User: Which sequence fits this backbone?
């Protein structure tokens, strides 16, 4: 090139230019308030209506059938249906603490959903944090070993965004310490480890059926047990009343109404609603799952199975389009694992700010990862065994992780637009 001459911009092909203009025009027609929902758990008005009739008119209780279904899908001795996945994890921590028989210190991932911390706070235990590998989102095994050596005997392992964790490596890490791992599979629907659903590996496993978890009953969770029998502490969980049943159906109706981009934009535009924000919610008293939530789970399982397949197709299509020199780095799952891609996690310098148009990326459903490590939460700091520790992997994920929507309501044009904003 002649000294002082301006570089010649790369020429784009006419089809690529037409594609980008078409994508931009399509999104512009939807209006500036349009917002893609971050996650989609299929739930139809017909399913809600039939669940309401089944629960309120016929007074039918689907919970025994759902418990049998979960024991079959995630081979387990017992399945306890609860009001939420957080409540299930709180009970799991309490059981594990009694089993290890020592002053309870539970080890949590330093980068995780805030509800994991809420469950430990509700269980009343001390908290140790271990680091997370930013390349895999799996526990940093050296950090886990150090945390166990310092006295933790219960560890919560929480696969994030449907990316499986190498459970064999976790069990090997636990050997010699007499420690017990709880598998928090709240985000694992549709993911597999060695051909079995994520949620099948731990002595204690936790499932969640909230609105953004792939398979939904509007609300609810489950505790699966493989080594230990149910005890009186679990049996004492409060039974739901008529108001709880109506509230569960109301939640399902709201999910049906708001769970579409054309409608989601309205509450998403109201800052006081806090949609899409990661917030710490104090623990609540454990209670049993409502009959309405169980009836919905029965009816939405086929839809959730189809949705999991659609998520994998969308995620793999986007990953295939990432060029080798892209600034975005995909997370590497273990070889024996199949991701469920509840969302597609990518590491980008600057996080959401690394997109060419961050506000447009948000409208397309792109979201930052968790805004802080668990150590930054006041309720966690009060219980930390090592309050001044550092977790560099978790801190890197706070700075640079974003997640892209993968659900079936994401169109090919929206996938193209998200990738364009990464260029």
Assistant:
């Amino acid at each position: 090139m002649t000294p002082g001459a301006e570089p010649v911009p790369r020429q784009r092909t006419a089809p690529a230019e037409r594609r980008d203009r078409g994508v931009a025009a399509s999104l512009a027609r939807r209006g500036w308030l349009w917002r893609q929902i971050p996650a989609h758990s299929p739930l139809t008005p017909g399913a809600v209506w039939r669940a309401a009739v089944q629960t309120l008119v016929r007074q039918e209780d689907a919970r025994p059938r759902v418990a049998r279904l979960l024991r079959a899908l995630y081979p387990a001795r017992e399945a306890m249906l609860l009001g939420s996945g957080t409540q299930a994890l709180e009970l799991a921590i309490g059981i594990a603490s009694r089993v290890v028989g020592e002053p309870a210190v539970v080890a949590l991932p330093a980068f995780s959903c805030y509800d994991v911390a809420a469950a430990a706070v509700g269980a009343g235990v001390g908290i140790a944090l271990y680091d997370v590998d930013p390349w895999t989102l799996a526990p940093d095994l050296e950090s886990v070993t150090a945390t166990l050596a310092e006295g933790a005997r219960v560890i919560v392992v929480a696969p994030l965004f449907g990316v499986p964790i190498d459970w064999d490596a976790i069990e090997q890490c636990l050997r010699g310490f007499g420690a017990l791992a709880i598998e928090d599979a709240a985000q694992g629907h549709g993911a597999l480890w060695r051909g079995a659903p994520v949620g099948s590996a731990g002595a204690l496993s936790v499932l969640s059926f909230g609105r953004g978890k792939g398979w939904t009953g509007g609300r609810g969770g489950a505790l699966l047990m493989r080594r230990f029998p149910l005890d009186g502490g679990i049996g004492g969980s409060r039974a739901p009343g008529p108001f709880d049943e109506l509230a569960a159906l109301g939640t399902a109706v709201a999910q049906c109404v708001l769970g579409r981009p054309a409608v989601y934009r309205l509450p998403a535009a109201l800052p006081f609603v806090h949609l899409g924000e990661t917030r710490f919610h104090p623990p609540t008293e454990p209670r049993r799952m409502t009959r309405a939530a169980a009836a919905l789970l029965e009816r939405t399982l086929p839809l959730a199975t189809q949705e999991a397949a659609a998520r994998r197709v969308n995620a793999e299509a986007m990953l295939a389009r990432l060029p080798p020199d892209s600034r975005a780095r995909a997370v590497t799952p273990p070889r024996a694992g199949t991701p469920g891609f509840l969302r597609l996690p990518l590491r980008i310098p600057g996080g959401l700010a690394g997109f060419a148009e961050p506000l447009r990326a948000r409208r397309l459903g792109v979201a930052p990862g968790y805004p802080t490590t668990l150590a930054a939460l006041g309720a966690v700091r009060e219980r930390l065994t090592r309050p001044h520790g550092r977790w560099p992997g978790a801190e890197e994920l706070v700075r640079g992780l974003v997640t892209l929507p993968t659900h079936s309501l994401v169109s090919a044009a929206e996938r193209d637009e998200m990738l364009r904003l990464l260029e």
About this structure: Confidence is low (pLDDT under 50) at residues 1-14. The CA atoms of residues 215 and 301 lie 6 Å apart. The chain has 15 helices and 14 strands. The radius of gyration is 22 Å.
